[in-house]
């Protein structure tokens, strides 16, 4: 959920000084940091994220990345100070990718230390890194724990070999419980990421993956329906008829099965694609996006949102390095959010989070549609009586349609 898409929006040019105009109340919301590490050993056929294998780097070395990230952290601190945005300690940090653990654990520790030295990290903050099961071992996990990481998010995707092969995932599924246990031995929270509706995946295959994930007893599970993106190897294979396109009805069945199996195992849904063992294990960093908090995104292609301004960095690591080494903003474009955009995004994101959207936040026309959504079985009536909009299971399957109803 935290990886950066490869395509960047088209918006206003970004000033080289990176300065923002603080909105009213700037500094009143929590502040997080996202670090995008855009390296992978191989490119998965379904992947549309801003990632690069060794042969695709051209003009920059992976070994230099940590130094470039430190330059952007220093630049970010200057921008916030010169823009008059009140200084806030960091509430959450998330290293995503790519595969952040393609870097030495000592490099990730160095970047985290720079974030702490620059802004301070609040006591008890959530600090996560994504990792592939084959990209960490006991020593690297111990190094991350000593550095202040509190959470590992493993890309499990599936426990079924033919599904992993279709996804071009190279890890051995038997490695997953091993690395989960290694993280638990260090006292770290563990999240497992799963993908369903892969071409050729059956409902029984999906149940096998769910059962395998639950057997690892993670603290958190994310389950995302595969989207076949144009321009990816999988997208081309589907277009040529070499792979079947995902089936929407089967995907719905898979989602319902996930909710049932995870619920029976003690996991509660808190966002449409996310379940945790109680609210204390929900991803605080992802919740910060859905709740509209501020964050600075470090790295190539990373997105940021601070004080009513949103921007995104240049994509290629070489272009990114060229910017930060000149002490100019690495942003490729930016936009200032007006009140209408803020409202639309608030409804779009908060509606997906259990108990997050209050009905009195909706405009009058939208409030008038809530009764109809309850009658159609898409919104929970009891929660609505308590003042919040909460999707039912059917509503989660049709979340986009619910949001359209509320915004039309």
From TrEMBL:
It is found in: Cytoplasm. Keywords: 4Fe-4S, Chaperone, Cytoplasm, Heme, Iron, Iron-sulfur, Metal-binding, S-adenosyl-L-methionine. Residues 25-268 form the Radical SAM core domain. The keyword Iron-sulfur applies. The keyword Heme applies. It holds the Pfam family Radical_SAM. InterPro entries: Coproporphyrinogen-III_oxidase (IPR034505), Elp3/MiaA/NifB-like_rSAM (IPR006638), HemW-like (IPR004559), rSAM (IPR007197), rSAM_sf (IPR058240). It comes from the Bacteria. NCBIfam families: hemN_rel. Belongs to the anaerobic coproporphyrinogen-III oxidase family. HemW subfamily. Probably acts as a heme chaperone, transferring heme to an unknown acceptor. Binds one molecule of heme per monomer, possibly covalently. Binds 1 [4Fe-4S] cluster. The cluster is coordinated with 3 cysteines and an exchangeable S-adenosyl-L-methionine. This is Heme chaperone HemW. It comes from Curtobacterium herbarum. The lineage of its organism: Bacteria, Bacillati, Actinomycetota, Actinomycetes, Micrococcales.
């Amino acid at each position: 959920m935290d990886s950066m898409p490869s395509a960047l929006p088209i918006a206003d040019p970004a000033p080289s000084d990176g300065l923002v105009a603080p909105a009213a109340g700037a500094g009143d919301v929590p502040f997080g940091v996202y670090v995008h590490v855009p390296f992978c050993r191989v490119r998965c056929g379904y992947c549309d994220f801003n990632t690069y294998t060794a042969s695709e780097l051209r003009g920059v070395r992976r070994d230099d990345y940590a130094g470039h990230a430190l330059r952007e952290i220093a630049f970010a601190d200057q921008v916030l100070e010169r823009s008059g945005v009140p200084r806030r300690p960091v509430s959450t940090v998330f290293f995503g990718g790519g595969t952040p653990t393609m870097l030495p654990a000592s490099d990730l520790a160095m970047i985290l230390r720079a974030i702490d030295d620059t802004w301070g990290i609040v006591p008890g903050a959530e600090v996560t890194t994504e990792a592939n099961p084959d990209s960490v071992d006991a020593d690297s996990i111990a190094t991350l724990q000593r550095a202040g990481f509190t959470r590992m998010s493993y890309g499990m995707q599936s426990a079924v070999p033919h599904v992993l092969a279709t996804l071009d995932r190279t890890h051995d599924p038997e490695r997953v419980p091993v690395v989960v246990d290694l993280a638990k031995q260090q006292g770290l929270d563990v999240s497992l990421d799963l993908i369903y509706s892969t071409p050729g995946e059956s409902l029984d295959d999906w149940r096998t993956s769910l059962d395998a994930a639950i057997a690892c007893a993670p603290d958190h599970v994310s389950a995302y329906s595969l989207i076949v993106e144009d321009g990816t190897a999988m997208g081309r294979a589907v277009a040529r008829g070499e792979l079947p396109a995902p089936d929407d009805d089967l995907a719905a069945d898979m989602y319902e099965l996930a909710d049932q199996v995870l619920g029976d195992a003690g996991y509660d849904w808190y966002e449409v694609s996310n379940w945790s063992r109680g609210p204390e294990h929900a991803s605080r960093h992802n919740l910060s996006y859905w709740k509209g908090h501020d964050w600075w995104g470090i790295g190539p292609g990373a997105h940021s949102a601070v004080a009513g301004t949103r921007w995104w960095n240049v994509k290629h690591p070489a272009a990114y390095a060229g910017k930060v080494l000149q002490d100019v903003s690495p942003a490729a474009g930016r936009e200032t959010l007006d009140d209408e955009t803020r409202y639309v995004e608030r409804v779009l994101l908060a509606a997906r989070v259990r108990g997050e959207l209050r009905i009195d936040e909706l405009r009058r026309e939208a409030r008038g549609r809530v009764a109809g959504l309850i009658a159609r079985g898409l919104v929970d009536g009891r929660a609505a009586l308590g003042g919040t909009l909460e999707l039912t299971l059917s509503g989660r399957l049709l979340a986009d349609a619910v949001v359209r109803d509320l915004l039309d």
